[in-house]
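ok so heres the complex, two chains, lmk if somethin looks off
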Amino acid sequence: MARLDRKPAELAAIAGLIVQLLAAALALWFGYYSGAATAKVLGWAALIGAPVALMALLSLRLNRLAEAEQEEWDRLKAEREAGGARGSLFEEDEIQAFAARNRLRILERYIGPIFSLVMVLALAGVVVGMVELDTIASSAVVADKAFISIAFFFAMGFVLFLMAMYAAGMSRQEAWRPMRAVGSYLMLSTLLSVATVVACFAGSFKYENPDRILAYCSLGLLSIVLLENLLNFILDFYRPRVGGVEARPAYDSRLLGLLSQPGGVFKTIAATLDYQFGFRVSQTWFYRFLEQAIAPLLLFQLLTLYGLSCFVIIGPEQQGVRERFGKYVSTEPPGLCVKWPWPVENVYRFTANKVEIISLGHSGARTVGENEKDVWTLKHYEKEFDVMVGATQSGLRKRDVPVVNLLVASATVRYKISDVHKWYYESVDPDKLVDAIANREVNMYFAHRDIFQLMGPKRMAAAEDLKANMNKELEPLGAVVLGVGLEEVHPPVGDGGVPKAFHGLITAVTQNQIDMLNAQAEAKRVMNAVQGDAAAAKYEAQTYYTDRIAGIEGAAKRFEAQAQLYALAGDVFKMREFMSALQDGLTDVRKYVLAVRKLDREHLRLNLEDPLRTSIESLGDFQKVETGESSPKK
Amino acid sequence: MSKHAFTVVVAVIIAVSLLMYMFAFTVPSSKVGLVLTFGNPADKPAQAGYHFKAPWPIQEVRIFENRLFAEDGRFKETRTGDGFNVIASLLVGWRIDNVLTFNKNFGRDKEEDRAKAAWSALQPIIQHSAEAVMGTHQLQDLVSIAKEPQYSEIENAIAAKASAEAMETFGMKVELVKIKRLELPESVAGQVYQSMIAERNKEAGDIESAGKAQASEVRTRAESESKQILALARSEAEKIKGEGDAQAKQYYQVFAKYPELEVYLRKLRAMRAMLKEKTTFVLDVTMPPVDVFVQEIPTAATTPGNKN
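and the predicted structre for the whole thing:
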C-alpha cells in the first residue's frame, strides 16, 4: 500500500496559518472599527489558533523527513547487504542518518508540551486581560458600521468554515492527523465569526447587550478550552506510552474537535451513552427520534420566540404607543396588546399612570437625622440652592449689593404623563424638561414675592399658583402637575447668622405682642377697678339718697308720735326716754358708781385704761357694783 | 425529502431577512432618515414609515432625531446691564431643523454621539447670546418686588438670537430657552446675607420699640380713662346725695315744731350709740337712777299709805 504524501497537508497547514493570521488581524481591526466586543474576542482567539497550524506544519514536515530518512537508511542497508559488506553501519552514522526522526522526537516530547503550556498561558492572558481591562463592558456596536461588519464577518466566517472543514476532512487520514488541531481552531474562529455577525446584527438595531452577552460567552468558551488544555498537559505526563498508539498533543482540544467533525457531536454523545449504559442506546427508537427531531425542535423554539414579539403586556402603571413600520398607530391602554411581529410593529411602553415626584431646591442626601430637630440653622441637604426673592431698598445696603433677599426653598412636584403621544414624540428627554420648567417657575415666582409672605400666609397660595403656572408650561409636553409642595421655605443657613437674625425678628414680634398683651391686661385691670370704684360711689350715693329720704321720713313720723307723748307727759316722757337710753346703753358697759358725796369738791384723777382693776381697787372705799353679764368678775 | 424542505424553509427565511435588511429601512415617527447615494444626500429626508433603498455600498441611510433635545447649559456668571453679576443656568431645547445642513456637520458621527457633538457646537452660541441679552437687562428685570420679572422676554430673546446663528451654521433650531436657576456669586451672596441680617436686626429693634410705645400708650390711655370715669361717677354720686338732702327738707319741718325735744332725743340717741363699745361709765350717785343709793330709804312710817 502506497504511503500517503504529507505535502498537501503541509500546504493546508500553511494555508490555515495564513487564514488564521489574516482573520486575527482583520477581526481585531473590525472589532475596534465597529465597536463589537465579540469581534475582539474572535481576533485574539484566531491569533492564538495560528501557532497551532505552525505546530501541525512542523509535525507533518518532520514526519515526512523522518520517513524519507528511514527509506534512505533501508536502501543503504540493503545495498550494503547486497554488496557483501559485513557487519552493520557504524552507530555514529546511524545517529547522523536519523536526525529528522530525533528532531521529531524532541518536538513531540518537549516542544509539544511546552507549546501546550504557552497556549494555556496565552488563553489565560486573553481571558483575564479582557475582563480586567473591561473591554467588553465598555464596548458598544456602532449601528452605522454594523452593516459592513456583518458583511465582512459573514464572508470571513464562510472562508474559515470551508478551511476548517477541509482541515478536519484531511485529519481523517492518519498521515495528516496533525491537521485535526488546525481544523478545530479554525472551527472555533468560525463559531466566533457567527457570534460576531449576530452581535452586529443586534447592534444595528441599537441593541448593545447581545454583543456583550455573546462576547462573555465566547470568553467562557475560551476558558473551557484553556482548562481542557491544562488538564491534557497534566495528564500527558501520566499517559502510558504504548507503542503503535497515536499520541495526541495536549493543545489538540478534544472539545473543539467535536465542533470540527461533521456529526461528531452526536457520534460522541452516542458512544458515551453506549459505554455508560452497557448497551447500544444510540440504536433505540427514542434516541433516533431525538436525533432527527432536534433541528426542527430548535427551529420551532426560535419561531416561538419570534412569535412572542406579537404580544406585549402593558402594566397597570403603563401606557403604550404602537407604531407600524415606524408610523404612529394608536395609544394602548394597560393589558395584553396583540400586534404584528417585529419589525412590522413596535409598542413602546411608558409609565404614564404612575405619579412621578421631583425634588427642587437641593441635591444630595438629607443631612438632618430623623430624630434631630428640623430647624432653620441646620443644613437640610448636602447642597441647598439659594433662590432670589424680591426686596425693598432699606437704606442699609451698600450700593453694589443687589436689592434682593435669598431664600432656601425645597419643593416637590408631583406629576404624571397626561398624553403619551405628546410625551414620546415631542421631546427626547421630557423628564429633563419637566425638571427645568419646574425649577424655572419656582425661581420666577419667588423673584416677585415678599420673603415674609412666602414664609408665612401666602405659602399655600404660592403652591397653588406654581401648580397652575407649571401646568400651563407642561401642557405641550403631555404632562400634568398634580401638586406642588413647598416643604421648606426659610432663610439660607450660610454661617448661621441669617436664620438667627430672623429668629431675633420673630422674638421681637413675639415680645411686641407680649408687651401689648401685658399693657392691655393692665389697662383692663385698671378699667375694671375704676368701674368698680365708680359703681361703688354711685351705689353709696344711692344708699345715701335712700337712707336720707327713708330715714328722715321714718324719723319724722316717729317724732310726731313722740311729740304727742311729750305734749301729754312732759318731763316724765323725757325721763322715761333718758332711763330707757341708759338701760340700753349701759347694758354691756363696765360701770363704776362713785358712792361719794360732794364729789364736786374733790378732784378725782381716773385712769380708765385697761387693766383698770388694780387702779380702781386702789381707790379705797369705792363700792363696786356688778351690773351685767359681761362685766368683769371679781 | 422533508429534511431538504426544512433546510429550504430555513434558507428562505434567512435569505428574505437578509434581503429586507439590505433593501429596506424603517424610519420611526420620532426620527427622519437621510438616504445617501454614493455619499450624496437626497434632497428631502425620508419621513416616518417603510422605505426601500439600494444595498450598501450604493445607498446608505442615516437616521436623525426629529424630537426636541433638552440640554442643561453650564452655570455661567454673567453681568446685567446695571452692573450686577449673576450666575444663570439655562435649559436649552433644540431640534434638527435642516437635516441636510446638520448632516454636513455631524452626519459622520455615530447616531448616539451626534446630539452630544451638536450640543458642543451649540453651547458657545448659547453662551454668547445669553451674555448679550443679559447685558441689556437690569437685575430688577429678573428679581423685583415692584416689577413683574421678564423671564419670558429674556428667554425668547436668547433663543431667537442663538437660533438665527445655529440654524444657518448647523441646521439646528433653538426652540426654547428656560432660565432654570439664577444665583448670586458667593461673595455677593455673602454681602446679601449681611444686609439681610442688618435689616432684620433693624426691623426687630423697630418692632420692639414700637411695641413698647404702643403698650405705654395703652396703659396711659387706660389710666386717663379710669380717672375720667371715677370723676364722673363721683360727681354723679354727689348729685344724688344732694337730691337726697333736698328731698329731706320737708321732713325737717316736723322737727321744727318741738326743737328742744328733738335735741334731747338726738342727745339720747347719740349717747346710746356712744356707750355701745369699750366704755367705762362712772356714775355719780347723785345721778338718776343711781341716786337711789343716796336717797333716804323710806321707813314704814314714811311709806305712803302707812299713816300711823
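quick notes: Residues 7-81+95-239+249-262 of chain A form one domain. thats all i got rn
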